């Protein structure tokens, strides 16, 4: 069986399982089985598959048909032009979060705090884009922090990124000129309607188990004590939440500096600063 034949069969199999965008996923899984970059897959499609590659593809298709995310099968997810190691212990990086990166990079910063860092994709992308910057990532999940440390070693060097197990803010007092977060923002009552793939991601990274806003309240409460003069706080929000989140941040004494839309025009990132330090 050639690669082309395997690709056609894989696509049919995923389509039959009801997997969205089956042709794309079939290509990614075949590339993974062949250990080639997906962009080079076309070059090797005429070649016959080895038994090992065919077995690896079959195992991957079984997992994807069960709606396990492709990133968990391959162990990698692309974000802002870089590949990040991901597992079932961390939230997959989302394209929407690149809006937060763009807003962060629109201003100066040298010391970053990433609250609920997960895979570390936000913190490490910002440090990679600003070689002189350093930062800290916090998370309540020890397994997630191990994934973040692995990504840090590969992408920026562990000396530029430190990680702490903490419920939002780090244990030692310090001020940052940039605080970022993509917290759990799905309300508990919305969880049942989510795509099956999300059942493979950590529930605590998706929902606060309440109204979807409690994490913003915790972040807002600690922000004034951790923002440096003229520092910025950037938080990603879910659909329709930007106004509520802005009100929460304002209620903690923060000034709202902007609400930034994603590519679909939805308010995605709320930007705030501490009025006491901006005056």
Characterization of this structure:
With 279 residues, this protein is of the alpha/beta class. The chain folds into two domains: 3-66; 77-278, 3-Layer(aba) Sandwich (Rossmann fold), CATH 3.40.50. It is 41% helix and 20% strand. It has helices at 3-16, 22-34, 41-44, 51-65, 70-74, 98-105, 121-129, 142-155, 203-206, 214-226, 242-251, 275-278, and strands spanning 76-79, 82-85, 111-115, 134-139, 161-165, 176-181, 227-236, 254-261, 267-274. The strands form two sheets. It has a seven-stranded mixed beta sheet with strand order 5-4-3-6-7-9-8, with helices on both faces. Strands 1-2 form a two-stranded antiparallel ribbon. The termini are far apart. The relative contact order is 0.11.
């Amino acid at each position: 069986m050639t690669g082309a034949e395997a690709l056609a069969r894989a696509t049919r199999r995923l389509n039959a399982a009801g997997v969205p965008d089956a042709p794309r996923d079939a290509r990614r899984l075949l590339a993974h089985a062949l250990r080639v970059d997906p962009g080079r897959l076309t070059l090797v499609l005429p070649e016959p598959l080895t038994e090992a590659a065919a077995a690896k593809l079959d195992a991957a298709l079984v997992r994807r048909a069960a709606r396990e995310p492709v990133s968990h099968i391959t162990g990698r997810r692309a974000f802002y032009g870089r590949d990040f190691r991901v597992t079932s212990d961390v939230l997959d990086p989302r394209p929407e979060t690149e809006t937060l990166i763009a807003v962060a990079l629109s201003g100066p910063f040298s010391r970053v705090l990433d609250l609920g860092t997960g895979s570390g994709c936000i913190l490490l992308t910002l440090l990679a884009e600003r070689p002189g910057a350093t930062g800290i990532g916090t998370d309540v999940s020890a397994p997630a922090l191990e994934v973040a440390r692995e990504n840090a070693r590969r992408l920026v060097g562990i000396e530029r990124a430190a990680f702490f197990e903490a419920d939002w803010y780090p244990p030692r007092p310090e001020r940052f000129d940039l605080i970022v977060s993509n917290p759990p923002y799905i309300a508990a009552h919305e969880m049942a309607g989510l795509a099956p793939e999300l059942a493979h991601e950590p529930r605590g990274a998706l929902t606060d188990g309440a109204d979807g806003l409690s994490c913003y309240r915790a972040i807002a409460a600690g922000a004034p004590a951790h923002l440096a003069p003229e520092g910025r706080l950037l938080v990603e929000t879910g659909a329709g939440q930007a106004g509520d989140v802005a009100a929460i941040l304002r209620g903690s004494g923060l000034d709202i500096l902007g609400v930034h839309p994603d590519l679909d025009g939805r308010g995605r990132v709320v930007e705030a600063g501490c009025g006491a330090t901006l005056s």
